[in-house]
Write a structure and sequence with these properties.
single chain; Herpes Virus-1; five-stranded mixed sheet; 18 helices; globular; binds adenosine-5'-triphosphate
Amino acid sequence: MQEELFKNIIAHAKEYGFIFQSSEIYDGLSAVYDYGPNGIELKNNIKNYWWDAMVKVHDNIVGLDTAIFMHPRVWDASGHVAAFNDPLIDNKDSKKRYRADVLLEEYIARLEERIEKEVKKGQKRFKDAFDEAQFRATNPNVLREQEKIDRVKDRIVEALNTDNLKELKQLIIECEIACPISGSRDWTDVRQFNLMFSTQMGSTHEGASQIFLRPETAQGIFVNFLNVQKSTRMKVPFGIAQTGKAFRNEIVARQFIFRMREFEQMEMQYFVQPGKEMEWYEHWKQARMDWHQSLGLGENMYRFKDHEKLAHYANAACDIEFQFPFGFKELEGIHSRTDYDLARHEEYSGRRMRYFDPETNESYVPYVVETSIGTDRMFLAVLSAALKEETLENGEKRTVLSLPPFLAPIGLAVFPLIKKDGLPEKAQEILQNVRLDYNCLYDEKDSIGRRYRRMDAIGTPYCITVDHQTLEDNTVTLRDRDTMVQERISIEKLPELLDKKLNKKHWLQKLQ
Ligand code: ATP
């Protein structure tokens, strides 16, 4: 893991007003974070790009915003009360709690690392004659580790599928997994732990009922399926998109905003005719990958991973994984959820959750394909891929956030070269003309070089400087974040240049 890089990202996020630890002056609240002035802009831009790619680009996808609190029966019907569990295990010496499945996954990742090391050694030794496929298929060290991996993986899947907690513990012992903190192998039994937060609704203790903070936004969509369908007269196939907070009492809440207890999701449920779900599942896998790739963070930063253990509601599921500084990890989930949710709500509420197909004159419970992405994880993906330390030709270093331009918190910074001679007034005038179209920033402090550096650090794609010549011929110096090229342009050209660089429309057009 690129520990240094990850530490830099966290420090940078704080220093430049992207992310703060929640309640920091009280030493923080574990796995809860606040977004600062630049963070909220970047997060909103990410959300808007997702929203537009769903709701604006598609005639048959509409939006929704449902409440965090829902009737408690919703979570009985969805299966969250009975089955939204993680298997946890405690180390008796450090008293630290872990997810048993995560400990085993990390063990497998270590074996995989060993294989990669062997392959690298082979590459070095055989140079041009190296045949990687053959090496992987025949090298005894590689084969031994691979066999171990396969055996452990099979047993994990079997144990998780049959809720065999004893077997999970047995595996942890057999794999000689030690607590990363105490180094000891003295473990408690594995127990199931429900991840939902609950609270009381109602004024008196006796009259109060237990309700949950939603652990996903999806159920708000399912229970409103008919309201939305009838009020918009949508025909299957159609989708409902929603962004909003979700809450999970995560056992292992580490890795900054990767795993939070309060987080945001962007989910879209696509309702289809039964039997057509696999077609749509494949469609949405590709559409979502295209959305990610459109950001240009690097083609090799993403990969699909099929689920080995399917959730109780799914007949196909995969993740889009992203190469975070701590390795490839889930960024988005795509699930074919069958008719599970709507059928369960029909059963638990006693209301029909059926769609009447006017073409066939038949009613049915639609099948659902879901795309579900964590807004905060997406934020971390963008931030970690964008943050770069560059050495310039003159040997100086600069920190630059190479964000996709239309996601940047500030689109344009406007600087007067000096604080007099009417330059600040001219700069303000330019700013007034574009500030309602793009987020802009006015800065007159320090040297121009330092102002550029500050803007590089928050990813501002364009800076313009107003100088004495501006007053004579209405031109400014435009400086590009990525190339650092400065060119003289006429102020009249600015709106067109900004549109090209900062209008998300151009990215959305490619997704149409
Ligand atoms: P994981 O396996 O990492 O716990 P999950 O499979 O439980 O995630 P889903 O229930 O599929 O996640 O949720 C959809 C998306 O919501 C995930 O792909 C992720 O981006 C995001 N997400 C889930 N849990 C968290 C969390 N605790 N903090 C931040 N984002 C989360």
